[in-house]
Protein backbone atom coordinates (compact mmCIF):
# COMPACT_ATOMS: atom_id res chain seq x y z
CA UNK A 1 0.00 0.00 0.00
CA UNK A 2 2.34 2.72 -1.25
CA UNK A 3 1.42 6.33 -0.71
CA UNK A 4 2.32 8.96 -3.28
CA UNK A 5 1.65 12.60 -3.94
CA UNK A 6 -0.14 13.76 -7.07
CA UNK A 7 -1.04 17.25 -8.23
CA UNK A 8 -3.70 16.65 -10.85
CA UNK A 9 -5.82 14.09 -12.64
CA UNK A 10 -7.02 15.15 -16.09
CA UNK A 11 -9.77 13.22 -17.81
CA UNK A 12 -10.35 12.90 -21.55
CA UNK A 13 -6.84 13.89 -22.58
CA UNK A 14 -5.98 13.33 -26.25
CA UNK A 15 -2.23 14.01 -26.51
CA UNK A 16 -0.95 11.63 -23.84
CA UNK A 17 -1.18 8.37 -25.76
CA UNK A 18 -3.52 6.43 -27.99
CA UNK A 19 -7.20 7.33 -27.87
CA UNK A 20 -8.88 9.12 -25.02
CA UNK A 21 -7.06 8.86 -21.72
CA UNK A 22 -6.94 9.88 -18.12
CA UNK A 23 -3.62 11.44 -17.15
CA UNK A 24 -2.33 11.37 -13.59
CA UNK A 25 0.34 13.89 -12.65
CA UNK A 26 2.82 12.85 -9.95
CA UNK A 27 4.54 15.54 -7.97
CA UNK A 28 8.31 16.03 -7.96
CA UNK A 29 10.92 16.34 -10.70
CA UNK A 30 14.74 16.24 -10.62
CA UNK A 31 14.95 18.68 -13.54
CA UNK A 32 14.29 22.40 -13.63
CA UNK A 33 13.61 23.06 -17.30
CA UNK A 34 13.42 26.79 -17.93
CA UNK A 35 10.17 26.35 -19.85
CA UNK A 36 8.46 23.80 -17.59
CA UNK A 37 4.73 24.30 -17.96
CA UNK A 38 3.91 22.49 -14.72
CA UNK A 39 5.85 24.46 -12.08
CA UNK A 40 3.42 23.17 -9.47
CA UNK A 41 4.71 19.66 -10.19
CA UNK A 42 8.39 20.31 -9.48
CA UNK A 43 8.53 20.07 -5.70
CA UNK A 44 7.47 16.87 -4.00
CA UNK A 45 5.58 18.60 -1.21
CA UNK A 46 2.15 20.22 -1.17
CA UNK A 47 2.26 23.90 -2.14
CA UNK A 48 0.20 27.04 -2.58
CA UNK A 49 -1.22 28.30 -5.86
CA UNK A 50 -2.62 31.82 -5.66
CA UNK A 51 -4.47 33.43 -8.56
CA UNK A 52 -3.43 37.09 -8.68
CA UNK A 53 -6.09 38.20 -11.12
CA UNK A 54 -9.07 39.49 -9.17
CA UNK A 55 -7.26 39.76 -5.82
CA UNK A 56 -8.83 42.46 -3.61
CA UNK A 57 -5.68 42.81 -1.47
CA UNK A 58 -7.92 42.39 1.56
CA UNK A 59 -5.34 40.28 3.39
CA UNK A 60 -7.94 37.81 4.75
CA UNK A 61 -5.93 34.82 3.55
CA UNK A 62 -2.93 36.05 5.55
CA UNK A 63 -4.71 35.95 8.91
CA UNK A 64 -3.75 32.99 11.10
CA UNK A 65 -6.22 30.12 11.09
CA UNK A 66 -6.54 26.76 12.80
CA UNK A 67 -7.57 24.56 9.85
CA UNK A 68 -5.23 21.56 9.89
CA UNK A 69 -4.99 21.55 6.07
CA UNK A 70 -3.70 25.16 6.03
CA UNK A 71 -0.89 24.71 8.53
CA UNK A 72 2.57 25.22 7.09
CA UNK A 73 1.27 26.89 3.92
CA UNK A 74 1.39 30.46 5.24
CA UNK A 75 -2.15 31.22 4.01
CA UNK A 76 -5.64 30.17 4.92
CA UNK A 77 -7.20 28.14 2.12
CA UNK A 78 -10.76 29.03 3.14
CA UNK A 79 -10.74 32.79 3.82
CA UNK A 80 -10.56 34.21 0.31
CA UNK A 81 -13.92 35.69 -0.74
CA UNK A 82 -12.97 35.02 -4.37
CA UNK A 83 -11.62 31.51 -3.95
CA UNK A 84 -8.18 32.50 -5.26
CA UNK A 85 -6.08 30.51 -2.77
CA UNK A 86 -5.58 26.81 -3.35
CA UNK A 87 -3.10 24.11 -2.39
CA UNK A 88 -1.86 21.51 -4.84
CA UNK A 89 -0.54 18.11 -3.86
CA UNK A 90 -2.71 15.30 -2.56
CA UNK A 91 -1.49 12.17 -0.87
CA UNK A 92 -3.11 9.07 -2.34
CA UNK A 93 -2.78 5.33 -2.01
CA UNK A 94 -1.46 3.66 -5.18
CA UNK A 95 -3.79 0.66 -5.08
CA UNK A 96 -6.87 2.74 -4.31
CA UNK A 97 -6.05 5.19 -7.07
CA UNK A 98 -5.41 2.33 -9.51
CA UNK A 99 -8.83 0.74 -8.83
CA UNK A 100 -10.57 4.10 -9.25
CA UNK A 101 -8.77 4.74 -12.55
CA UNK A 102 -9.26 1.17 -13.80
CA UNK A 103 -13.01 1.36 -13.18
CA UNK A 104 -13.22 4.63 -15.06
CA UNK A 105 -11.02 3.35 -17.90
CA UNK A 106 -13.23 0.32 -18.32
CA UNK A 107 -16.37 2.45 -18.41
CA UNK A 108 -14.99 4.93 -20.96
CA UNK A 109 -12.84 2.36 -22.81
CA UNK A 110 -9.91 4.70 -22.29
CA UNK A 111 -6.28 4.39 -21.22
CA UNK A 112 -4.28 5.84 -18.35
CA UNK A 113 -1.09 7.86 -18.69
CA UNK A 114 1.15 8.62 -15.73
CA UNK A 115 2.98 11.91 -16.06
CA UNK A 116 4.35 14.63 -13.81
CA UNK A 117 6.56 16.20 -12.68
CA UNK A 118 8.59 13.10 -13.18
CA UNK A 119 6.71 9.87 -12.40
CA UNK A 120 9.86 7.88 -11.58
CA UNK A 121 10.63 10.27 -8.69
CA UNK A 122 8.16 8.14 -6.68
CA UNK A 123 9.26 4.73 -7.94
CA UNK A 124 7.50 2.40 -5.50
CA UNK A 125 4.24 4.32 -5.85
CA UNK A 126 4.52 4.36 -9.65
CA UNK A 127 5.20 0.63 -9.92
CA UNK A 128 2.34 -0.27 -7.59
CA UNK A 129 0.00 2.07 -9.48
CA UNK A 130 0.92 0.47 -12.82
CA UNK A 131 0.54 -3.03 -11.37
CA UNK A 132 -2.86 -2.10 -9.98
CA UNK A 133 -4.04 -0.92 -13.39
CA UNK A 134 -3.79 -4.51 -14.61
CA UNK A 135 -5.11 -4.87 -18.15
CA UNK A 136 -5.78 -1.14 -18.68
CA UNK A 137 -3.78 0.40 -21.54
CA UNK A 138 -1.07 2.39 -19.75
CA UNK A 139 1.64 4.86 -20.73
CA UNK A 140 4.19 6.94 -18.87
CA UNK A 141 5.69 10.29 -19.78
CA UNK A 142 9.18 10.58 -18.35
CA UNK A 143 12.20 12.84 -18.59
CA UNK A 144 14.35 9.71 -18.33
CA UNK A 145 16.57 11.14 -15.59
CA UNK A 146 16.35 8.14 -13.33
CA UNK A 147 18.22 4.97 -12.36
CA UNK A 148 18.29 2.42 -15.21
CA UNK A 149 16.68 -0.29 -13.07
CA UNK A 150 13.68 1.87 -12.14
CA UNK A 151 13.38 3.09 -15.71
CA UNK A 152 13.39 -0.45 -17.10
CA UNK A 153 10.91 -1.79 -14.54
CA UNK A 154 8.47 1.04 -15.25
CA UNK A 155 8.96 0.71 -19.02
CA UNK A 156 8.19 -3.01 -18.91
CA UNK A 157 4.81 -2.36 -17.29
CA UNK A 158 3.36 0.02 -19.91
CA UNK A 159 2.15 -0.19 -23.49
CA UNK A 160 3.90 3.05 -24.46
CA UNK A 161 6.71 5.08 -22.96
CA UNK A 162 7.10 8.74 -23.88
CA UNK A 163 10.65 9.92 -23.28
CA UNK A 164 11.41 13.65 -23.36
CA UNK A 165 14.67 14.59 -25.01
CA UNK A 166 15.46 18.22 -24.37
CA UNK A 167 18.93 18.64 -25.83
CA UNK A 168 21.56 16.32 -27.29
CA UNK A 169 24.50 18.32 -25.92
CA UNK A 170 25.05 17.61 -22.24
CA UNK A 171 26.54 21.01 -21.37
CA UNK A 172 23.61 22.83 -22.99
CA UNK A 173 21.20 20.37 -21.36
CA UNK A 174 22.69 21.25 -18.00
CA UNK A 175 22.13 24.96 -18.63
CA UNK A 176 18.54 24.48 -19.77
CA UNK A 177 17.39 21.88 -17.26
CA UNK A 178 19.86 21.92 -14.36
CA UNK A 179 21.16 18.39 -15.02
CA UNK A 180 23.47 16.71 -17.57
CA UNK A 181 21.89 14.46 -20.17
CA UNK A 182 24.04 11.30 -19.84
CA UNK A 183 21.62 9.36 -17.59
CA UNK A 184 18.80 10.20 -20.02
CA UNK A 185 20.83 9.15 -23.04
CA UNK A 186 21.70 5.87 -21.32
CA UNK A 187 18.03 5.13 -20.76
CA UNK A 188 17.24 6.10 -24.35
CA UNK A 189 19.91 3.64 -25.51
CA UNK A 190 18.29 0.94 -23.40
CA UNK A 191 15.00 1.57 -25.19
CA UNK A 192 16.75 1.61 -28.57
CA UNK A 193 18.21 -1.85 -27.93
CA UNK A 194 14.94 -3.40 -26.73
CA UNK A 195 11.38 -4.20 -27.73
CA UNK A 196 9.50 -1.79 -25.50
CA UNK A 197 7.38 0.57 -27.61
CA UNK A 198 8.53 4.12 -27.07
CA UNK A 199 8.16 7.58 -28.55
CA UNK A 200 10.64 10.40 -28.11
CA UNK A 201 9.10 13.76 -27.34
CA UNK A 202 10.92 17.02 -27.90
CA UNK A 203 9.55 20.26 -26.45
CA UNK A 204 10.56 22.89 -29.00
CA UNK A 205 11.77 26.01 -27.22
CA UNK A 206 12.44 28.93 -29.58
CA UNK A 207 16.16 29.67 -29.80
CA UNK A 208 17.11 27.17 -27.09
CA UNK A 209 16.86 23.67 -28.55
CA UNK A 210 15.06 23.98 -31.89
CA UNK A 211 18.11 24.48 -34.07
CA UNK A 212 18.73 22.13 -37.02
CA UNK A 213 21.97 20.79 -35.53
CA UNK A 214 20.37 19.60 -32.30
CA UNK A 215 17.32 18.10 -34.02
CA UNK A 216 19.51 16.40 -36.64
CA UNK A 217 21.71 14.85 -33.93
CA UNK A 218 18.61 13.31 -32.43
CA UNK A 219 17.57 11.80 -35.78
CA UNK A 220 21.06 10.37 -36.25
CA UNK A 221 21.07 8.90 -32.75
CA UNK A 222 17.70 7.24 -33.27
CA UNK A 223 18.87 5.63 -36.50
CA UNK A 224 20.30 2.85 -34.30
CA UNK A 225 16.94 1.94 -32.81
CA UNK A 226 15.76 -1.66 -33.07
CA UNK A 227 12.08 -0.64 -33.22
CA UNK A 228 11.16 2.01 -35.82
CA UNK A 229 11.90 5.30 -34.06
CA UNK A 230 9.18 7.90 -33.61
CA UNK A 231 9.49 11.52 -32.57
CA UNK A 232 6.75 13.93 -31.53
CA UNK A 233 7.62 17.61 -31.38
CA UNK A 234 5.75 19.73 -28.87
CA UNK A 235 5.62 23.40 -29.87
CA UNK A 236 6.38 25.95 -27.17
CA UNK A 237 3.49 26.66 -24.82
CA UNK A 238 3.14 30.46 -24.63
CA UNK A 239 0.73 30.39 -21.67
CA UNK A 240 3.17 29.09 -19.08
CA UNK A 241 4.02 32.29 -17.24
CA UNK A 242 0.67 32.68 -15.46
CA UNK A 243 1.23 29.40 -13.63
CA UNK A 244 4.60 30.63 -12.33
CA UNK A 245 2.89 33.70 -10.89
CA UNK A 246 0.36 31.45 -9.19
CA UNK A 247 3.10 29.24 -7.78
CA UNK A 248 5.08 32.34 -6.74
CA UNK A 249 8.08 31.25 -8.75
CA UNK A 250 10.26 33.26 -11.15
CA UNK A 251 9.88 32.55 -14.88
CA UNK A 252 12.94 33.29 -16.97
CA UNK A 253 11.52 32.97 -20.49
CA UNK A 254 9.13 35.95 -20.46
CA UNK A 255 10.97 37.37 -23.46
CA UNK A 256 9.92 34.49 -25.74
CA UNK A 257 6.82 35.23 -27.79
CA UNK A 258 5.45 31.77 -28.43
CA UNK A 259 2.41 33.12 -30.30
CA UNK A 260 4.57 33.93 -33.29
CA UNK A 261 6.42 30.61 -33.26
CA UNK A 262 6.56 28.41 -36.34
CA UNK A 263 9.05 25.58 -35.74
CA UNK A 264 11.04 24.23 -38.68
CA UNK A 265 12.04 20.57 -38.55
CA UNK A 266 15.12 19.56 -40.58
CA UNK A 267 13.35 16.92 -42.62
CA UNK A 268 16.31 15.51 -44.54
CA UNK A 269 18.07 13.71 -41.64
CA UNK A 270 14.76 12.33 -40.42
CA UNK A 271 14.10 10.91 -43.88
CA UNK A 272 17.66 9.60 -44.22
CA UNK A 273 17.61 7.80 -40.87
CA UNK A 274 14.04 6.56 -41.24
CA UNK A 275 12.72 8.44 -38.22
CA UNK A 276 9.00 9.05 -38.30
CA UNK A 277 8.05 12.44 -36.83
CA UNK A 278 5.12 14.75 -36.32
CA UNK A 279 4.35 18.02 -34.60
CA UNK A 280 1.65 17.68 -31.94
S1 LIG B 1 -8.11 36.67 0.59
FE1 LIG B 1 -8.20 36.49 -1.66
S2 LIG B 1 -8.69 38.55 -2.32
FE2 LIG B 1 -7.98 38.73 -0.19
S3 LIG B 1 -5.74 39.10 -0.34
FE3 LIG B 1 -6.04 36.89 -0.16
S4 LIG B 1 -6.06 36.20 -2.32
FE4 LIG B 1 -6.49 38.40 -2.36
S1 LIG C 1 11.23 17.34 -16.93
FE1 LIG C 1 9.13 17.99 -17.34
S2 LIG C 1 8.24 18.33 -15.33
FE2 LIG C 1 10.44 18.23 -15.05
S3 LIG C 1 11.12 20.36 -15.12
FE3 LIG C 1 11.30 19.53 -17.18
S4 LIG C 1 9.38 20.04 -18.21
FE4 LIG C 1 9.05 20.26 -15.98
Amino acid sequence: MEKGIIFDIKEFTVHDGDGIRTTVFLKGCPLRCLWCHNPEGLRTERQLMITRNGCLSCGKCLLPCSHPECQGLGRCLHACPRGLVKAVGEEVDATELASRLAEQAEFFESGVTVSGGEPTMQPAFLLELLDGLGSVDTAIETCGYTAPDIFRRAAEKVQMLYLDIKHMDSAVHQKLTGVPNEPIQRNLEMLMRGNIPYTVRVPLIPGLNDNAENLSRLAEKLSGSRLPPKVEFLPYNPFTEAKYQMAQMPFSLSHIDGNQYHPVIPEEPYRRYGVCWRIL
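The chain has a mean pLDDT of 95. Residues 3-46+89-279 form a domain with the TIM Barrel fold (CATH 3.20.20.70).
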